[in-house]
Amino acid sequence: MVARVARALVFYAALVGVWQALAVFGPWPSYLFPSPRSVLRSLWVDLQAGVLLEATAMSLRRLAVGYLMASGLGSVIGAATATWRWARDTVGSLVLGLQSLPSITWLPLAVLWFGLSERAIMFVTVMGSLFAISISIRSGVETVPPVLKRAALTLGARPWQLLLHVVLPAIIPSVMQGLKLGWSFAWRSLMAGELLVVSMSLGHLLNVGRDLNDVSRVAAVMLVIVAVGITVDRLLFGQAERVVRERWGLEEAAG
User: SS3 string of the chain?
Assistant: First the structure.
């Protein structure tokens, strides 16, 4: 544990050193490539004003709503396409095709359908993560070893018992990966959607920094976006994955 922390500290210290060297000796002027000190100063100013905390809270609220919607709908679609052949041949093929669309391509459609509104942001967030979640759920259900199902049926398991005691426990690792992937897609899609609407959010702060030619502020908000992503991944999905690895005996392989 200590060695891991030490390696991370050395790596990020070296990264900041390279950043500082590029800011001082690089070919770009300071207003295009700010130094770490300039970015931290901008970050501190927004923190003191309360703007950054308010924007982060608003973005996280939108993320929670959009991600929950995408997770629920994606789970239903994934389970349906894995269970019924007609759904796999129809909806399943459509999901695979739509997954190839970058999240930003939903922006024009969101504006045309919903205007510059909260619904447009929610639409982009949901569509950005929905298909990744559904594909992961489908893959998890389809990769359940058939021998487990046959053994349960041989022992007299009813369909609901087969689902509850065999299929669901077997797909939990795949579900966790799908939810984690869906979260990352939802977070990125949300940032793209928030660039549309003039309301307090991290995406709006990015727009303000761009309009004011304030690269330090843009970089500071980007650091906050990265920090939120890492924090959620470590505190939420990291802990959940650790429990799953221990419960399913995957801890040694993961290490």
Answer: CHHHHHHHHHHHHHHHHHHHHHHHHCCCCCCCCCCHHHHHHHHHHHHHHCHHHHHHHHHHHHHHHHHHHHHHHHHHHHHHHHHCHHHHHHHHHHHHHHHCCCHHHHHHHHHHHHCCCHHHHHHHHHHHHHHHHHHHHHHHHHCCCHHHHHHHHHCCCCHHHHHHHHHHHHHHHHHHHHHHHHHHHHHHHHHHHHCCCCCCCHHHHHHHHHHCCCHHHHHHHHHHHHHHHHHHHHHHHHHHHHHHHHHCCCHHHHC
State the Cα–Cα distance between residues 69 and 72, nearest whole angstrom: 5
Q: Are 150 and 203 in contact (CB under 8 A)?
A: no
pLDDT at 251: 56
Mean pLDDT of 59-65: 90
- Specify the pLDDT at position 110: 86
Residue 102 CB coordination number (10 Å): 11
* pTM for this predicted structure: 0.78
Residue 104 has pLDDT above 70, yes or no: yes
